[in-house]
Write a structure and sequence with these properties.
The chain is of the alpha/beta class. It has a single domain, classed as Vaccinia Virus protein VP39 (Rossmann fold). Helix content is 36%, strand content 28%. It is built from six helices and seven strands; from the N terminus they run αβαβαβαβαβαββ. It has helices spanning 2-9, 26-31, 45-57, 70-75, 97-106, 118-132, and strands at residues 14-20, 35-42, 63-67, 85-88, 110-115, 135-142, 152-158. The chain has a seven-stranded mixed beta sheet with strand order 3-2-1-4-5-7-6, sandwiched between helices. The mean pLDDT is 94.
Length: 159
Amino acid sequence: MEHLVTWVSSRLRGKCFLDVYGGTGLFSIALHDRFESGTLIEVAKPLIARAQENFVRNNIRNIDAVHTSAEQFLAARHSRDFVDCLVVDPPRPGLTRKVRESIRALAPPTLLYVSCNPATQARDVGFFADKCGFKIERGALFDFYPQTHHLESVLLLRR
């Protein structure tokens, strides 16, 4: 896990980021000192509580944790609500059409897509390349499940 966190944090920097499907705050914690502010979005209430505990434990004050769905949060955002970077780590089915369209409207210059399902990641990244002008800048695979066929795929996309 440490290699993934280092890989991500060494490549991102800016003013504001969104950590969508943020869970307990792994990426938010890794990025808190690389950005002025950030917002973690998570639909599972117990995970939001853990994220908030983790922020307090790590003395992190520049990240907000919001208990809502990615669909609801992103639908309320617009391109005028500038973010430098969007981090998404969706469940196995990938991003919903509504989330993809909301990201398209938000138009972040950088998108970090973390996935445990390369097929849905490929589908979603294809959408972002075709409809939003993103290009893959870097990618990496992480094997968190030794002796299985499961891998974690991380793609850094920029406009």
